[in-house]
Design goal:
This protein has 15 helices and 17 strands. The protein has helices spanning 17-28, 44-56, 72-85, 98-102, 104-109, 121-129, 191-195, 204-216, 241-255, 277-286, 301-306, 313-325, 343-359, 386-397, 405-421, and strands spanning 6-11, 36-41, 60-66, 91-96, 114-116, 140-143, 149-151, 176-177, 179-180, 200-201, 221-222, 224-225, 260-261, 291-297, 329-336, 362-367, 401-402. α14 links the parallel β16 and β17. The longest helix is centred in the C-terminal third of the chain and has 17 residues, at 343-359. Residues 428-441 have low confidence and may be disordered. Bound molecules: iron/sulfur cluster (SF4). Iron/sulfur cluster (SF4) binds next to α7.
């Protein structure tokens, strides 16, 4: 039996479909002499079955994995199980995404053959051309036959419009990425590290093309992926509302009378200082959502300064009040356990959470995680003391507080263990920015 040159198997999990769809969007337009097919492994077992069939057909196999840092340990276990079912020199397991980018050596040590470093589109296309041979392809880390670590640098960052934001050929759609990268430098966040500290926006014309494709297939809902929704079209910290309106008007018109546009709601967040009546009225005019997500992160100005958030607590209050006045349901993201946070800061965050809940906001609580690639990668894992947990629970019972903060405490501890096992030169767990309290306190 003879199969194609290359079989690409996606370990296709719900949590990472978007990243895969973007890769498929790039792949479907790619002209290559390599004959290839794509299969979707929805479970470890089906992934192993696809690999087995490809190996039996004599094809080379690229198995694509993508995961966030908190999932790395669990998926390493899954990879091991798959290798126990089927393993062959024809098979290459490739890990991409932010964890592989930030911790390539940990990724290789955990069992993957290749770590894709940086944005994956161009790297995948080059790997397909080379039928899975990594030599000379930028954006990879791997060990050569002698076991030496080879790093080929970060993949080149291309304009967002170079590749499709979803896949027509494989019929895989998702919220459309309109902005990649971020000019802010919040110390807990992986986005600027992964995608650069500047914005790359998808043009309105390119977005409209995607919306037209969706409508032609009977899809009705247009949503967006962006680090900061009201930064669309801007290259600075100032929103460009004319660009936002152009985008929303084009989407509204494109998706037609039966369609719905969502902006500033999950998975796109709004920075509090960007919230204005004018911006909210644009959302109301063109969009279906009556809720927005505002990133507050802390109720302590001291902690916000340490995290380099670039806004204070007052902007959060103002944003929530304005949002409520304009008739929106407001979801507020908060992080507990950030480095340097003390009892008074926790008290301030809880007080803010109560105040905003009284205004009608829903608080989305997170535990700080020392994420790879971030300035706080070597910080201690976030911990939330029992009194805070009780208060969080109490607010939760009011229906005002939701989130996965307990699970994140466990993730945080695991990430800290990885950071300790893979130290960065010149860094130690004790190097943290501490912002002193001011004299008034
Ligand atoms: S938290 Fe948001 S605003 Fe801050 S760096 Fe990350 S993406 Fe940018």
């Amino acid at each position: 039996m003879s199969g194609p040159d290359l079989v690409v198997v996606l370990r296709y999990r719900k949590a990472v479909t978007y990243g895969f769809h973007v890769l498929l969007g790039a792949l479907e337009e790619h002209e290559t002499t390599t004959g290839f097919v794509v299969h979707f492994g929805d479970t470890p077992e089906s992934t192993a079955a696809h690999i087995r069939a490809a190996v039996d057909g004599g094809s080379r196999v690229l198995v694509l994995w993508s995961f966030y840092s908190p999932d790395a340990a669990g998926l390493a276990g899954e990879l091991k199980r798959i290798r126990e079912i089927v393993d062959s020199p024809l098979v290459t397991h490739v890990a991409g995404g932010v964890h592989a980018t930030a911790e390539p050596v940990h990724t290789l040590d955990a069992g993957w053959d290749l770590a894709a470093v940086g944005e994956g589109e161009a790297t995948l296309l080059a790997l397909v051309d080379a039928k899975g041979d990594p030599q000379g392809i930028p954006g990879l880390a791997y060990r050569d036959a002698a076991g030496n670590l080879v790093r080929t640098g970060k993949a080149k960052q291309r304009p967002l419009g170079d590749f499709r934001g979803f896949s027509l050929k494989w019929d895989k759609f998702n919220a459309l990425e309109i902005t990649r990268g971020c000019v802010y430098a919040c110390r807990f966040c992986q986005t600027p590290f992964m995608f650069s500290a500047r914005f790359r926006h998808r043009s309105v014309a390119n977005v409209r093309w995607h919306v037209d494709q969706m409508r032609a297939r009977g899809l009705r809902d247009v949503g967006f992926i962006t680090p900061t929704a009201l930064s669309y079209g801007s290259q600075s910290e100032e929103p460009d509302l004319a660009a936002v309106e152009e985008l929303l008007a084009a989407c509204r018109e494109g998706i037609g009378p039966g369609g719905r546009v969502f902006f500033g709601s999950f998975p796109s967040e709004i920075r509090p200082e960007h919230v204005s009546r004018e911006a909210l009225r644009l959302v109301k005019k063109y969009c279906f959502n009556n809720n927005i997500i505002v990133g507050a992160q802390s109720g302590s100005d001291r902690v916000l300064d340490a995290a380099k958030r670039g806004h204070g607590v007052e902007e959060v209050r103002r944003a929530v009040r304005l949002g409520v006045e304009e008739g929106f349901r407001i979801n507020v993201d908060m992080i507990f356990g950030m480095p340097g946070e003390d009892e008074r800061d926790v008290g301030d965050s809880l007080a803010l959470a109560r105040e905003l809940a009284d205004l009608g906001a829903r608080i989305h609580a997170h535990t700080f995680m020392p994420l790879p690639g971030t300035p706080w990668r070597d910080a201690p894992p976030g911990d939330v003391d029992p009194a805070t947990i009780r208060e969080v629970d109490r607010l939760s019972q009011r229906g005002a507080l939701y989130g996965h903060w307990q699970k994140q405490r466990d993730h945080a501890a695991r990430l800290a263990a990885v950071a300790e096992a893979y130290p960065r030169p010149g860094r130690s767990r004790t190097i943290l920015t501490q912002v002193p309290r001011t004299g008034a306190e």
